Every structure is written in structure tokens, then in C-alpha cells.
Amino acid sequence: MDAELHESVEEAASDIASMEIRGAATIADAAAEALAAQAEDSTADDPAAFRAEMRAAARRLRETRPTAVSLPNALRYVLRGMDGETVPDLRESVVESAREFRRELDQAQENLGRIGANRLRDGDTVMTHCHSTDALSCVEAALDQGKEIEAIVKETRPRKQGHITAKQLREWDVPVTLVVDNAARRYLDETDHVLVGADSIAADGSVINKIGTSGLAVNARERGVPIMVAAQTLKLHPDTMTGHTVEIEMRDEREVLTEDEELEIDGETDGESFAIENPAFDVTPPRYVDAIVTERGQFPPESIVTLMRELFGDQQGGEPWEE
């Protein structure tokens, strides 16, 4: 019989899948909180049933977003902290593991922001893509240091996450210029740094981020504008050697079309058929990235594999949510 999942798990899974909860760190935090809620309210009457219930909750959360590695990394952290011979002991260990993970998550972004801010100079203009709390933490820390920063923000279609970035920056009194995605190359001549986040980083230093990042990086390199990727170590993908082996999430085609457009969603217009694809992410090869900034320091992409070995070692065995 399937384990009964707590409403917090179902709500978190639904919100993550629909992007009501977005951003790798926010997703990870929500997943850890949902696992803690599952543990606290579990009615399991023996340790085996409790463990099965927690694995089922983790599987439900894991299936929502296949590309963002922060989600499985959060689940691994919490479930690998599950320990004890009785249900109360197991419950306490999961809740404490989730609490510890969330504490570290908060501190990691603060440390990352401080390190990333050191790469930004007073008077710099940054160009952003999508919405990344890690990238924004670098700008916020630079502002706290008394630096004046301006921003050119790409809209980032089809969901226009750049609008969220622009709103946050304006709340910090940062002068913002919002541009459509296709205008990025034009404004690179006015840009000192391209600053983006990441959803996953492969061992070779490839960066998997919102679709459009790779094209921006290629253009920036051609224009001589340095590309800084802000990503907590939570984004490191220890099971993937190259970015091209990471599963890229394909989102609903309805995100591409608006209700007032003439195109029919079934692919039929004037008797001609067409396909709609909506990949959420792309892969930026390491040669286009100048630095990956984490809470443990800044690294050239080719050094990421060394950092992964220090953090994760040689991982053995299956995933903690597997039967």
C-alpha cells in the first residue's frame, strides 16, 4: 500500500512543478521543509513504515523538476541524516537534518554574495538573465559595500522571469534597463559583467541554466565581457561529468503561446502543421565562463571537479529515496 503523503509534500510538489516555487535555493528549501512536515505528522507505527513513507515523499518531490540538481541534493541531505531505531528517533533526526540544511542554505547565500561582490567594482553595469537569488545576492552585497551598480535585465521569455529580477533591483534603488532577449548583444557594449545563476553545474564546469544563457555567454565572450556564474555548491551535480548528459526539462508548449495569438495549440494553422518545443534550460560550455562563484570561494570552471571531490568524494550506492 502506498504511503500517505502529507499535504505539505503535495503542495510543495505542485508549486515546484508549476513554478510557483522557483529558483534552485528556494526549491531546495521548500523540499527540506516538506520532508520535515512529513516526518513530524507521520502516523507510521514502526521504523520500516516510517522510512518507506519518507522515501515516498522524497520520490514525489524528486519527479517535479528533472534539471535543477538542488532538489535531489536537498533530498539526499535530509534523508541521509535519517537515523534511529525507533519512530520517534527517526522523526527527530529528519526534522533536525532538515533544520540544519536550511540553516546552511541561508548562510551559504550570504557567503556567496560577499565573495561575488568582490568581483564587482564601483560603477559597474551587470547584465542578468532570468531570476537568480544567488546572482542577486552578489549585487546586494556590493550595494552593502557602498558600490554603485547598474543593471541591464533581459526579460527571459517565455515566462519573463527577468521582470522579477528587475523589480527586486529597483527595490534596492539600482538603475535598471529592461530589454527583450534579442537585444542582449546590442547592450553588451554597455556591460561590465554578465551575471547569471545556475540550476546545475557538471563536473567539467559546464553550466546548466535558463534557456538563452549559452547564447548570451557566446556573445559576451566575443565582446570581451566576463561571465560570472553565481551558484551555491548545492548546484553541483556530482553524478554528471559533462553538462550535455543532464536531462533538460521540456515545459508545457502553452507557455510559448499567448491567448490572443492566432496559432492553434494543436499545431494546425491554415492546414499546415508545426511543432512547438519549450526547453527550460541549455548548457553553457566551460570555455565561455570566467568564474563560478560559490560560498566556498570563486573557481575557474576547470577546478569544479576538484571541489566536487572535496565535497562529495566518490559516492557509492543508490539514492536514499529508492526502495
UniProtKB/TrEMBL annotation:
Annotated GO MF terms: ribose 1,5-bisphosphate isomerase activity; S-methyl-5-thioribose-1-phosphate isomerase activity
Binding site for substrate: 22-25, 65, 209-210, 235
Family indicated by similarity: Belongs to the eIF-2B alpha/beta/delta subunits family. R15P isomerase subfamily.
Record function comment: Catalyzes the isomerization of ribose 1,5-bisphosphate (R15P) to ribulose 1,5-bisphosphate (RuBP).
Transmembrane segments: none
Catalytic residue list: 130 (proton acceptor), 199 (proton donor)
HAMAP family assigned to the protein according to its UniProt record, in alphabetical order: R15P_isomerase (MF_02230)
Coiled coil: 91-118
Keywords annotated in UniProt: Carbohydrate metabolism, Coiled coil, Isomerase
Catalysis performed (reactions): alpha-D-ribose 1,5-bisphosphate = D-ribulose 1,5-bisphosphate
GO BP term, pick one: pentose catabolic process
Record flagged with keyword Coiled coil: yes
EC number annotated for this UniProt entry: 5.3.1.29
Note: Reaction proceeds via a cis-phosphoenolate intermediate.
Pfam assignment, any one: IF-2B
The protein, known as: Ribose 1,5-bisphosphate isomerase
PANTHER family the UniProt entry points to: METHYLTHIORIBOSE-1-PHOSPHATE ISOMERASE, RIBOSE 1,5-BISPHOSPHATE ISOMERASE
